[in-house]
Amino acid sequence: MVEITIRKRPREDAVVTQRKFFKKTARGKVIKVLRERYLRDDVNCGIQRCSLCSLDVEPTLPPLGTQEHQALSFGHYVIPDTNVFLAQMDLIESPLFKTPIVLLQTVMEEVRHRSLPLFNRLKMLMRTDEKTVWVFYNEYRSETAVIREEGETPNDRNDRGIRKATAWYNSHISLARPPIRNQPKPVLTTAVLLTDDVANRQKAEAEGLKAISVRRYVEGLKDANQLLDLLSVKGEEIEPTRAAAPRQALYPEYLPTATVLAGIKAGQLHQGHFNANQYNYLEGSVNVPAFTKPILLVGRETMNRAIDGDIVAVEVFPESEWKAPGDEVVDQESTLKNDDAEDSDDEEGEDDVEAAVELRIVQKEGTKRPAAEKQPTGRIVGMVKRNWRSYVCHIDRTSLQSSNPGSLSQQTVFATPVSRLLPRIRLRTRQAPSLVGQKILVTIDRWDSSSRYPEGHFVRALGQVESKEAEQESLLLEFDVPYRPFGKAILDCLPKEGDAWVVPPKNADDPEWKGRDDLRDLLICSIDPPGCQDIDDALHARPLPNGNIEAGVHIADVSRFVLPDTPMDNEAAARGTTVYLVDKRIDMLPELLGTNLCSLRPHVERLAFSVIWELSPEAEIVNVRFTKSVIASKEAFTYEAAQLRKDDPNMHDDLTKSIRLLNDLAIKLKAGRMAAGALNLASPEVKIHLDSAESSDPVDVEQKQLLETNSLVEEFMLLANISVARKIQETFPQTAVLRRHMPPPPTNFEKLKDVLLKRTGRSLDVSSSGALAASLDQCIDPNEPAFNTLVRIMATRCMLSAEYFCSGSVGRDTFGHYGLASPIYTHFTSPIRRYADVLAHRQLSAAISYSPLHPSLHSKPYVERVLDVVNRRHRMAQMASRASVEFYVGLALKARGISGTVTEDAFVIRTFRNGINVFVSALGIEGLVMFKREIQFDAENYTVSVPSPNDGAPTTISVFDKVRVKIDVEKDPNTQRGKVKMTLVSPVNSASL
Amino acid sequence: MSSRVEILNDGGYRSDGRRQYELRDISIDLSPRGTADGSALITHGLTEVMVDVFGPKEAKSRGQSVHDRATVSVEVGIMPFSTGERRKRNRGDKRVLELAASIRQTFEPIIQTSLYPRSEISIFVHILQQDGGLLPASINATTLALLTAGIPLTDYVTAMTCGVHSTTSLLDLTILEENDLPHLTVASLPRTGKVTLVTMETRLHAERVTECLKIAGEAGKILHKEMKKAVEARTQKLAQAMEMAPKVAVVGGGSGGVGDVEMEDEMDT
To answer: What is the total count of domains within chain A?
Structure first.
């Protein structure tokens, strides 16, 4: 049984043991606090074989101290002052610094107060085996406890405590080894006070103590040369503890709303979405219509608390102050490593240091850069609309004050958002220790001008980092994908028969058959990716007696089931699209419809909406007809299966023939489209192999292969979409649901053109889509087949994204689809997974007088509103699936990394002052290679010169160069966020750089 | 600032220099106060509680009296100056009522109420200073006040808080520790080891509960020794005083007798 005792404390001691002070709460109330402490005589000195101290703990200090010092011939320990840890932590951490350290409680607490990150480093130091550190709890030992005297600053009190403890150590040692008569007086081990505070040193010497500055001490050590390098300059001049100053505003205040609105109206201010820069957290930009280039914002103050996605009002500086965007990668985490989450006054000391670092970075963003690169530069003066939402974050471990899992105390910690575009969020929570290593959802509450970081609150935990559920949910939340299960009201809209629903037998009077063509006899088949359950489309083709060909595209008749203005319709409109993650599909429509009743499965009768053309053998449209129909698909092929069937010379059945016929037509259609100037763009697409449906552990990643049949389906879908677009635009010129792709402004291509010209001598003609397509075709490097793809990917990134629009809302001349080089386009072919297609179905159905048009689709504002939502959802869904792929690529890499390192070929796509951005085509991922050492950077020629490790000639790396990189997945130790880290392997190994 | 205090540092010291099983200083004052039949002042660390006991006496209203036993009423007053932030709590404050109810429930089975039918025993608890362990200090002081009032109890009641920091249990929490740690308050009968009250306002891991209960019970025994010492010292003083005073009829003996003497004194006046 444990021993329970009562700590007796004489009443008279109260002067020493009780401490009374006043504290100001966050609300400004002043509270009187009374604390007591119990002084004791059993605090261990930590010296081995000490005769005076109890032996309940294992002491670590060698009895003779260290003797490896030139100036101090006697054995000694060092007792460092607080300033040593605050300024010279690198030195103390060095394995070459071997002197036994007595760490005083006073010092430790002071470090804790001044900087938590440093305190955590100190704690790590105490745990390492190479170091001899003994913590002496001087504040609890009766001889060494000090109380603050009248008029004494806390700093002076601590210094006095440190001196008192040093003196105690020396007397304790001499008491423990009393001189024995007839023997020479033993040489006693000494405790030496190590401090850079001159005043403290002088006082110590006056009291007869040994005191020495860090520099002088290190000079006498054995490895002085190496250790002196670690000395930080900061420690030379010691600043006294600042008195708590009132908190200063770090950011300028926003202008009042009325002023902002007036300014925007008058053209003095500009309004736009704020875009953070993912490579440099000190830079952002705002796209405004008044300038062709986005307005650049450099530095924290000019970005003035804007968060990615906010709508802000910007004031543009005069042209003489315009700057070029930075060419350096600035990582928030590494720059602000030692920033402190606690919102107290002593934060400001560190603020200054970091502010200086940031200032240096900002200033380096040269004004010396060529004028052509300069962009309009400005600052944010007002906030039009905050677009804050919930963010998925990780808790930063170093910002924790107490990592004890049972602790219930309220702590202020940093939450690092998963997205690199967002600043860290300051969070107050009582459950911080249990949230470390989890993904959590955080909402931003406010960002005051006096606060460096936004403040937020914890919403809920999503689960352990890297657990699939947590990652999946965090993806969906991060991209704002609605993923709740369908509610009862929605499910009530499904046919009552459930999955037993069938097309009723043919009967002219049956409402189901009214106006429908019976196409059950046609040889219709579907071609889809493997494992596809929601089959939207099926095709057929047959020769006509007149030598022409009849080709048909049959699309699932979703509008038969999803009726306008029902709960199911509203939900589908809100969801906008089905989202495909690697291991999950978030449906737009309930599963019964999506994968069963609407899905054009083989061998069953299904309702369809058909587009049937009469095409000439040259694939010119002779005639087109739209009709609701009933079909029975004969076969559901995968792309591969269809390809094999088509290529198999032994197959001569009608179905195969019809595939061949379709294929021939598709080739001609494609040729026609290309001739018209359609672009063949590329995006990095990879395929994830999953182990099995249950475990869903990724086994490997490979690039997606495109077969001829892919193109077959694509061509006919495009044809159907274009035909439908024409029809509905004719019938409903005001409200037709169309899709367009705006031509990109030529300035978007400037950079790419310049790089191509300088690096490869090729020019890019971007005057029209046809010209671009032609010059992209020219970009071929015979030695490097992937080069063309790379250029295409980069060109794609310069373009705008396609969008849905309402035909009455924009001018007729802007209907065009740039990428497809089609004057008009819509989406009709995937109504199961896209809501815009459902609208197009309804409009087409009304256009062929099959059914009346619901009044909502006659209203321009309604269509605009719905399409706005759909556009946003569409964009988010794309990003979510990309992020999901990235996550799985990461997992696969990790799995591969266990058996050995992963090295892949990569192309340099961008150069920075301190790193390069590479693209790994085999994995479809991008990564940064950072150089720690200084490298030569030639912004003009997009080149960096890396000194080779053994001081040889520098290696030059430029954009489009092929390099080999080693890819690791490493976890950020603080936030547990998985990160893909790349290092160069060839032409030069960057591991040491 | 307060969040920056380490509850238990690596050296095994708590923020006030105690180790995990060390209780704070306790001083007990049992001197009589005013017209109270029994009173006790306990200073436990920086927590200070004064308890006055009146009774057994006739119940204030007939409606409250019970025909076969005495009723116990507890009133708690928290002095506005007892915390750093001056704050007045009314009598109806939920927290105060709860404290009173806990004390009443603890003592109802311990006081031999059946000896005093149709009477009332009133306990007034005044909290003069608080620094954690409010309920235990109140319970301990009530035990002592009841004893000095000469009300027969089946046993002492001793109470103690026990908290858990990570996996180590800590005894006798200060307010700082109470705010941070899950903890439970245990009132037990030191002689039999029976537990009369366990309260917990935070969540505590099930595996830690038995350990906490055991250690808090052990601590109760230590407290018992301390309280007994104080009671004995007081009795001794009284006995000495009586020897010197003019002869008064002594009925019975022991501590119960002392109470009787006082009652007679009162009746004389």
So the answer is: 5
pLDDT at A694 over 50: no
Q: Are residues A737 and A856 in the same domain?
A: yes
Of B21, B84, B164, the CB nearest to A406: B164
Asked if A31 and B85 come within 8 Å (Cβ–Cβ), the reply is yes
Question: Which two tokens mark A272?
Answer: 């736009």
A147 is in which domain, residue-wise? 11-235
Q: Note whether A407 contacts B21, CB cutoff 8 Å.
A: no
Nearest-CA distance from B162 to chain A in Å?
12
Nearest to B180 among A32, A126, A408 (CB): A408
Q: What is residue A135's three-state secondary structure?
A: strand
Cβ contact, residue pair A37, B27, below 8 Å: no
Angle CA A937–A943–A945, to nearest 5: 60
**CA A954/CA A464 separation, integer angstroms:** 44
Question: Is A412 within 8 Å of chain B by CB?
Answer: yes
Residues in A touching B171 (Cβ below 8 Å): 4
∠ CA A370-A372-A378 to the nearest 5 degrees? 95
Asked if A406 is an interface residue toward chain B (Cβ–Cβ < 8 A), one would say: yes
Residue A887 in domain: no
Question: Alpha-carbon distance A977 to A83, whole Å?
Answer: 33
**Positions of E strands within A783-914:** 803-806, 902-912
Find residue A78's DSSP bridge partners.
Answer: A101, A192
Cβ atoms A375, A323 nearer than 8 A: yes
Question: Are B1 and A344 inside 8 Å of each other by CB?
Answer: yes
The answer to whether the CB of A599 falls within 8 A of the CB of A582 is: no
Q: Out of B4, B17, B84, whose CB is closest to A37?
A: B17
In this predicted model, what pLDDT tens digit does every residue of A601-623 receive, in sequence order?
888 999 999 999 999 988 889 99
Contact B166 A29 (CB under 8 A): no
Q: Which residues contact A767 (CB under 8 A, 6 or more apart)?
A: A746
CB-nearest to A3 from B7, B21, B226 is: B21
Q: In the CATH scheme, what is the code of domain B2-268?
A: 3.30.230.70
CATH of the domain at A918: 2.40.50.140
Instruction: Tell me if A36 and B222 make a contact (CB, 8 A cut-off).
Output: no
A88: helix, coil or strand? coil
pLDDT-derived band at A35, boundaries 50, 70, 90: confident
Q: What is the mean pLDDT of residues A48-73?
A: 77
Element (H, E) at B100: helix B94-107
Which among A313, A320, A301, A321 has a CA at the least distance from the CA of A266?
Answer: A313
Structural domain includes residue A952 = yes
Closest approach of chain A CAs to the CA of B201, in angstroms? 12
Half-sphere exposure (Cβ direction) of A943: Cα atoms closer than 13 Å: 11
Claim to verify: residue A776 and residue A839 sit in the same structural domain: no
**CB–CB of A5 and B23 under 8 A?**
yes
CB-CB under 8 Å, B22 with A407? no
> A629 and A775 share a domain?
no
Q: Does B23 touch chain A (CB under 8 A)?
A: yes
Tell if the CB–CB gap between A407 and B165 is shorter than 8 Å: yes
B246 or A396: which leads in pLDDT = A396
Nearest Cα residue to A698 out of A892, A890, A883, A886:
A892
The predicted-structure confidence for B251-267, as pLDDT tens digits, reads as follows 444 444 444 444 444 44
DSSP annotation string for A257-307: HHHHHHHHHHTSEEEEEEEE-SSBTTEEEE--TT-SSPEEEESHHHHTT--
